[in-house]
Amino acid sequence: xxxxxxxxxxxxxxxxxxxxxxxxxxxxxxxxxxxxxxxxxxxxxxxxxxxxxxxxxxxxxxxxxxxxxxxxxxxxxxxxxxxxxxxxxxxxxxxxxxxxxxxxxxxxxxxxxxxxxxxxxxxxxxxxxxxxxxxxxx
Length: 138
Description:
mainly alpha
């Protein structure tokens, strides 16, 4: 009986620690978005992203629409042809993944087809993520 109680307690604690890790990582991602200035992020989007991406549902350009992209799974837009690397990535566009990808798309996703060298400024990346998060909550 003691062994079963020990095993049950160990399993419960392992699950609890795993859940806590997921919650903390989710909060960290939202904290990054909360740090940014969505108004400044709108200008970053216009300068660095709008030539290839729209924010309108179903309106793809050279790149896919970023309509409600924050929190979404990568390569999910119907009708857009993604690279094999993006389809296989299993990315979820949270703040951390967006920050890494936007900083250096080619390094973050070898084999991807985005033709953008990356956004060097960390503050601009944080503002862009805040903007994308604000657009995804509308």
